[in-house]
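Researcher: Sequence of DUF2732 domain-containing protein follows. Predict its structure.
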Amino acid sequence: MRNVETRQMTTEPEAIEYMLTAARMDERRNRAEVMAARLDILAEKIAIHSLSREQAAEMVRDEAMNIMHQAQELH
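Model: Prediction complete. Tokens:
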């Protein structure tokens, strides 16, 4: 059995708002990094396989659909 110390904290509404804003900004940064990595992978595939404009556009559309499906799963 662990010793658990419980403390009551009183926080100002401004402090809570600041923490929420910081968490949101961190999440946005993380999502931006993931998106940048996905775009980099797409660009690399297009370059390696010397895809035509039509093929590249189709690959981007497919990735957009994947992102949309992932977003819908989160709701």
